[in-house]
Amino acid sequence: MSDFLIAPFQYEYMQRAFVAALVVGTLCSTIGTYVVLRRLSFIGDGLAHASFAGIVIAYLRGIDYYVGALAVAVVTALGIGFVNRRAGVSLDTAIGVLFTGAFAFGVFLMSRVPRYMIDLQSFLFGNILGVSREDLWLILVLALVVTVSLALLYRALLYTTFDPVVAEASGIRAGFVDYALLVLLALTIIISLETVGIVLVAALLVTPAATAFQLTRRFTRMLVLSAAIGAFCAVVGLYASYYLQAASGATIVLLATILFFLAMLVRRRPLRQSSAARTTR
Amino acid sequence: MSEAVRIRELTVRYDQVVALDRVNLTLQTGMALGIVGPNGSGKSTLLKTIAGLLSPASGVLEVFGAAPRTLPPGTIAYVPQIEAVDWSFPANVYDVVAMGRFPRLGLLQRFSKHDRRVVDAALEALRLGDLRNRHISQLSGGQQQRTFVARAIAQEPKLLLLDEPTTGVDAATEEALRELIRGLVKNGLPVLMTTHDLDRAADWFDRLVVVDRRVLAEGDPETVLASGAYAGIREHTHVHGHARTDAASEQQR
Fold it and tell me: What is the interface pTM, i.e. ipTM, of the complex?
């Protein structure tokens, strides 16, 4: 049994992969609690796709992929917030417009390069075994920044997620909190790209939190449970992919999806409004 | 007594629609001011503007001598007419009322024993003690309303804004709420509240204003009601009120 658990760790790249998976799984599912409760499920997908333009730009300019992806994701995140406030369109429409625009820009740039050398597959589906020592440091530092920010903003995020209007009237800067969350999401997604890839990162943001939502009716418990589920899926999923010789990102996401449906089955009673509450609304 | 709210020639627009037209109003500390007016008269708009949620097109609006959005967090507590929250949100009654303390707490400050005591007192004041562990989706309309008033009380605000808090609330709860508010006013809290209930206005308020985009009358409740200023606008409300309400509420998301 212990051999079974230790075997993958004989390779240094596997050690790095496990640390990266653990950090990314925990971080995504923690911030994912807000994504699910604010109904922003679309945004993980959006920012991940938008970052593709940054990867292409970074390639063309010969700079680090992370820098390019991060810059475009943060600009897109702020743009989404800005368009949502100024154009008066809903947030998911703003996301839809901006992320497809940024993604199209990436495809446009790439199509003009005669012979592109980017390993497209590793960005679309992740390449967790390719996490270098430098990548891992970057992941750890950015994860620390996001975690500390989330801790500092904990109450403001909770209040504005539940009741933004009254929170704002009470003096909490709801606009600032919204922008901050978008930027933190952009950071989270960027450090997740190498682990699960553009296409699957949204699942890590949404599925563990959606699973936790079914299992508890208190916010703090949902946050902790979501983080635990995300960490569990990342580590166990990576083990499974090692022994099944399957793609790691896909295995992690599949495990999370299975847990979601299991939670649906064990949930004692469905969330339903009382009849009195329904009639007055 | 000092001035809590000072409004001079305040105009508020939703795009082309004028919701409030050159309104003048003063609220002293330790006073309860009632706002009456037909649907779509701008009552809710007035509260939202004072709460800093809407920006005036022109005029002066001061809360304790400053613009609402420049006040220290926790100064203003606002209870909207309809809470547009997600009722499946993972929170029970206690959790929601505890949020009232959040604006006052610093970034790294712990939720202290004192905070817990204030929340407990707010729950007791609104007779929610037995419901503290109940999930918000399992509350009746009146219980939901009481929860949000309790959250406002737990904030220990310097100014309390209530938008029709008695709608859908039973008589016993309404009376408990009135006594609670009168007690707070007696201790110096300025309260601004919209209502439809003209019969009880004198029991609730020290002063009353009739608003229909403009201030039509202001004074002590008996005098204002006797003047017939409200009865006069009631007639044409049925004709004009509707179109305005729709235009205004569309802008309010």
Answer: 0.89
